[in-house]
Amino acid sequence: MPELPEVETVRKTLAGLIVGKTVEDVQVLWPKIVKKPDDVEVFRLELIGRTVQATARRGKFLKLIFDDLVLVSHLRMEGRYLLCEQADPVDKHTHVIFKFTDGSELRYRDVRKFGTMHLFPKGTEEFSLPLNQLGPEPLGRAFTSRYLQDRLSRTKRNIKAVILDQTVVVGVGNIYADESLFRAKVHPERRADSLSAAEVKRLHRAIREILREAVSQGGSTIRSYVNSQGDMGMFQQSLFVYARRGEPCLQCGTLIEKQVVAGRGTHYCRRCQKAGE
User: Fold this and answer.
1) Cis ω on the peptide bond leading into residue 248 (within 30° of 0)?
2) Looking at the whole model, is its pTM more than 0.70?
């Protein structure tokens, strides 16, 4: 599933491709993707004649901002946006097509059909699902080490589960959770309330550093992720633990292990991330 760096890369790419374009028509080929409004025809008619003013992101959600509407889109496992010409063939995995007045089309393609779209009047999207229960942005001012310390001190869940919890902090998924915990030298099974103040500060710093580095490199190309121009992210070349099971730790040489933690395949170094610390 695309995480914050991947969605931010899509956002920036789309900003350069579709801002200023006006919707001539919308074709919904898989109605279940549209969650709001309930009527797909209303969704279509609301967008016709609207111009894309900007793109934005909230956690792992992409926002397409029109004149007076905001489309909130979640890519889920394999959702992708592609800018095409109207003459280009439409494949069977394309489920929503935004036709622009200049002859181009923004196509939403999703092999698994897990993606979602919600349409809101501008300014109301943050007060309803799916955005109204999200925690602070990890690269924003509200995500401080003091805030993180307070949230961790309230729970006995393991630390991996807590930093994956989008109500605690948004945008951190499996890849960047594993990498952040490794950089902070924190074992993923540690109880959240057992972390010392120094460990919390290390983890807070690691989360922010890892995400900034990943954004600067266009995210990680794991499985099928590419941005909206078909370009792959490069951060996977900087991974220390994720997807490196059985390979030597780049810091100590111990073989990287993998086990299920918080319901997710989790990679860590037993020596660098000791369970009792």
Assistant:
1) no
2) yes
